[in-house]
Design brief:
By secondary structure, this protein is an alpha/beta fold. It has seven helices and eleven strands. The strands form two sheets. It has a six-stranded mixed sheet with strand order 4-3-2-1-10-11, with helices on one face. Helix 1 runs parallel beside helix 2. The longest helix is centred in the middle third of the chain and has 23 residues. The chain is globular and about 50 Å long.
């Protein structure tokens, strides 16, 4: 008997295109998505799945064809897929929606599943603790700047963007370290607590910090940072039968 598709899955921060092991990470990610297809009702990708992306009118960035094909197959089979753009792949525009049937989001959204309320997003720029990052985010999200960037040849823009992305990622890993910084220094947590003052959620689910974590925010709401698929192979799954959202590492299932 076929399994019932009733679970909600979250994956984040694969940064495909970055590092010499990118192709291996993509294959492992596709293996996970292939396996969960039997019981997945909704798949949520929390952003930075690609280390850099820019949607040109007439071309597709080289690479990532396995993941794109896998997402299209899952959508065609009836699985609902959502993608929350991150700070590395914010220039995806409508490509995944048009070609793969994915629902795109550029800000945190409230989602409802199995009677539970989820506040979901990537997590960049929340809490406004870094004014420099806030300014850079506004520059990159400017429609004018996006149109100007599109005029430049991809042979110049992609190598430059990927070198800059790798350098920026290493800088933040040195500065932030991949661990919880404390309630007053975690922008996502500050944002969630502020939202909780006027709204009710069962779960706040984000990526961006590359730090797998589950912690209570109040007597009802749990904050879950899914971690990443770059340094780890983290994902999260909400199971209606147990009414719980749990974190997993794909590599643990291979040993």
């Amino acid at each position: 008997m076929a399994e019932v598709r009733d679970k909600l899955y979250f994956v984040t921060d694969a940064h495909l295109g970055s590092g010499p092991d990118s192709a291996g990470r993509e294959r492992e990610l596709c293996a996970l998505l292939e396996r969960i297809g039997a019981d997945c009702k909704v798949l949520v990708l929390l952003g930075d799945m690609f280390d850099f992306w820019f949607t040109y009118r007439h071309l597709v960035p080289r690479g990532n064809v396995r993941l794109l094909g896998q997402l299209a197959r899952m959508a065609d089979s009836g699985i609902e897929i959502h993608f929350f753009i991150g700070n590395h792949d914010m220039w995806m525009f409508d490509y995944l929606a048009t070609e793969c049937g994915v629902v795109m989001h550029d800000e945190p959204e409230v989602m409802h599943f199995d009677g539970k309320t989820f506040l979901v997003g990537h997590g960049d720029g929340l809490g406004h603790l870094d004014r420099g990052f806030d300014l850079m985010r506004r520059v990159f999200r400017s429609r004018l700047n996006q149109r100007l960037f599109a005029l430049l040849p991809a042979g110049l823009t992609f190598p430059f963007a990927r070198r800059w992305s790798d350098s920026n990622k290493r800088k933040h890993e040195r500065q932030d370290s991949l661990h919880y910084l404390g309630d007053d220094r975690e922008g996502i947590v500050l944002y969630c607590r502020e939202r909780l003052q006027r709204e009710r959620f069962d779960y706040c689910v984000f990526g961006h910090r590359h730090t797998p974590l589950t912690m209570p925010l109040d007597d009802r709401c749990t904050y879950v940072n899914v971690g990443d698929w770059l340094n780890n192979r983290n994902y999260a799954v909400y199971t209606p039968a147990t009414g719980s959202l749990t974190l997993h590492d794909y590599r643990d299932q291979l040993s």
